[in-house]
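User: Batch of two.

Assistant: Item 1 of 2:
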Amino acid sequence: MTAAALSRTAAGPALISMDIGHDAYAAVTDPNTAFWALVDKNRVDEALADGPLFDRYREKADTFARELHALRFGLKPSGVYLNPTERCNLNCTYCYLPDTQRSGGSHMPTEMLLASLGQLRDYFRSVMPEGRKPRAIFHGAEPLMNKTAVFAAINEFADDFTFGLQTNGTLLDAAAVEFLTARNVSIGLSLDGPVAGITDATRRTWGGKSVHGKVLAAMDKLKGYGSWSVITTCTTENLPFLTQMVELFHAREVPTCMLNAVRCTLPGARDVKPADGDMAQAFTQALDRTHELYRETGRKLLVANFANILIAILAPTARRLMCDISPCGGGRAFFALAADGNLYPCSEFIGLPRFNGGNLLATGGVEAALASAAFRPVIERDVDKFAPCADCAIRHFCGSPCPAEAHEMNGGMGMIGAFCEFYKEQVSYALRLIADGKANDYLWDGWDEDTETTFDLGC
C-alpha cells in the first residue's frame, strides 16, 4: 500500500490517496478522523480538486473528529479479564506469561474471587448505564485449573455480569460444558494446526504430549452451541496451513474464529514470528477460502479479528474489539485482574511488574489503578505522536498494536508493534472487499442494525 498527500487547506482537512491494489478503485482518507472514500483510481486528482467529495467532507470533518476523539479518549471500562490462576497445564512456546508462573504459580482462593467480583460489580454500576451488564472473561493461564472458584463465581454473579471463558480445551469435560452452556457462558478454545503435528509444534503439555485430539473433542461437545469460538495463533509453524485451518473450522461448524498474529511480548513468541509479507499472504488466502466456503454452503465462518478491521473502516465507533485502535482498550474499555488480586491494563501485561496498578481489594480499587503510573502509559499511548504512525494513512484502523509488545520488543510505548506491514495489507484487502461489494459476506448478519449513515456521497 502506498499513500500520498493530495489536498490540504489552511483551515481544512488533509486527504491522502492510497493504492489499495484494486483494478478500478483507489482510496482517499483523512487519517485524523478515520474518514475514507473509494474513487476511480484514474481520476483521483479530479475527484479531490475542489470537487464534491472534498467539499462535502470538509463540512463533516469536525463531527467525525469529535466522534473519533470520544472513541479514543472518552470511554469508561465495561469489561474485565479475570485470571483466576497463574497456572497452566500447557507450555506454549509463545505464551505472554512467564513460565515460572504457569508451571508453579498459585490459584486465587474462591473467597478472594467472590470478593473481587463484588467490588468489580459495584465499580461497573458506577460507570455503566443502568441495565447494561459488564463483560467478565475468565482468561489465561488456564482458568479451568481453578474450576471450583470459577464456577462458584459464575453462579454467584450470574445476574451481574455477562461471562465468558477462554480455555485451552483440555479440561473441558462434559460436566463443564453442561454447566457453562446452561448459563450461556461464551466459550473460546485454542487450536493451532489442522493436524496434531502442526499444533504440537507450539502447543503441548509440560511433558511434551499432544493436546490436539482433546481440543477437537471439546469442539465436538460444543457443536450447535451458539456462543463459542476458536483462536488460532499464527506463527511460522502453522502459517502455511491457515487455509486448512479455516476448512477444519468450517467443517466442524465453528461459528467464529480468530486468526491472531502472535503477540511478541516475550522472547519465546519472537522466535516463531512470521515475516509481515508471509503473514499477509497466508491470512488473505485463508480469508478468501472462508468466502468460497460461504458461497458453496451458505454458512459463514467469521474471522472475528478481520471482521473488526472491516467494521473499524465501515463504522469506526461500532467496532467490537479494541486492540486495533490507539490508545487500545487496555485500561480504557477493560482491564485485567491477576490471580494475586493485582490489576493490570490487560492480561498481556501480567508478566510485566512495572504495569501493576495495585491490588483491587487493598489499594484503592479500580479507580486508583486507572489513575496509576502503571496504567497511564498504556492509556495515553497515541499513534498521532510518534513515527512512523503519525504520518500513516490507516493509523486509526490499526492502532499499532500491541502496546505490551511495542514496549517489550521495540523499546517503548512510542514505538510500533510487531506487524506494521501486515496491518497495512489487511486494511487494503478490506477496502478491496468494500469496493467489490463483498464486505457483508465477512461480517455478522445484522452488524449494521444499530448504525447510522452520516456520509454517503455516492461517487
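Item 2 of 2:
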Amino acid sequence: MYKKFIKRLIDIIVALVALPFVLLLIMIIAPFIYLEDRGPIFYNAERRGLNGKAFKMYKFRSMHVNAPDIRNDDSSTYNSDTDPRVTRVGYFLRKASLDEVLQFLNVLKGDMSLIGPRPNLTSKPLKSLDELERKRITIKPGITGYNQAYFRNSIPQREKYVNDCYYVDHISFALDVKIILQTVKTVLLNKNINTNTSEKNSLTGNQND
C-alpha cells in the first residue's frame, strides 16, 4: 500500500509545496550561473529511471560548458574540491546540494520520487545490467536515498548498489522519514561530499554534471 500509492501521494504533495521555492531559487540562481561563463542555466541529464526507461533529469549547471566526463575506476562520478571543471557558482551549489532542487519537477512529472536510488547514466545497455543493477531500477529513482543520506560520495559504487537494493527490500514510511532527516543533517554538516578515489580515467565525452 505504501510503496504503490501513499509514497506517490506524498511525492506529489511535497513537490507541489516545494514548487514556489524552486521557482524562487531559479530566479535567484540563474543570473549567477549565466554571468559566470555565459553558458546555459540548466543541465538536462539523460538518466535511467523506473524499469530502465530513460528520462531527462533536471539540474542547475555546475560545470563549465562542454566539461569532459571524468570517472573513477568503478564508473562512479568524480568529485573533488579542486575539480577544475566546476564553476565557482557550481562549487557553492554542490556544497549546498542546490544543484539538485530542480528534480522536484521530475518528482511532479512522475519520473522520480523524493527517495530512491540515484539514477544512473543510460550509456550501459539495459540487457548487460547485473542482478543488483536490475533490482535497483524496479523502483523510481530519488532526489535523495539511503546512500546520499548516510554516505553521499564516500563509498564505492558497488557498495551503493548493495545499499540501494536494501532500500528496495525495506521500503517503508519510517525508513523514508529517517532518510529525509539524515539527508538534512548530512547536507547541513557538508559531510562526505567528495570521494577519495583518484581520477584515473581518460577525459572523454561531454559534461556529466
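The beta strands are 42-48, 54-60, 113-115, 142-144.
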